[in-house]
Design a protein that fits this description.
The protein is mainly α. It is built from five helices and no strands. The chain has one domain. Helices cover about 75% and strands about 0% of the residues. The longest helix is centred in the first third of the chain and has 32 residues. The chain is elongated and about 60 Å long. The model has no long low-confidence stretch (mean pLDDT about 90).
Length: about 110
């Protein structure tokens, strides 16, 4: 657990190499975390549509859906900041840095939808 926390701190402070920050933390883990949030949201929708045990969920369904949809947002902001800072490392060509920054903003925007 300490290792994960230290890696997340390194990501947020821009200490990771750009390749790792972008591909590993933004693309791979970002997609995985956002898909998990979407799957949980779909489970709430399915449960709220059926009668029986789900009666307790129906009044809370809109709030649960919003909460589950926004749950990955802090991580998404973390990887945007991390990639943005990693792109500013010395030795990163300006074209590569600009492309990474543009791509991470596009990825963040996509993840807001899914």
């Amino acid at each position: 657990m300490r290792c994960l926390v230290s890696r997340l701190k390194a990501l947020g402070s821009g200490q990771l190499p750009l390749r790792e920050a972008f591909w590993d933390w933004a693309v791979f883990w970002g997609l995985l975390i956002n898909l998990a949030g979407s799957a949980l949201s779909l489970a709430v929708i399915v449960l709220s549509r059926h009668t029986g045990a789900a009666e307790a969920i129906k009044p809370l369904a809109p709030v649960l859906l919003l909460a589950l949809h926004l749950l990955p947002l802090p991580y998404n902001l973390l990887f945007v900041v991390g990639v943005w800072r990693s792109a500013g490392h010395a030795g990163i060509p300006p074209v590569v840095a600009g492309a990474a920054r543009l791509a991470v903003i596009a990825l963040f925007s996509l993840f807001l939808v899914i």
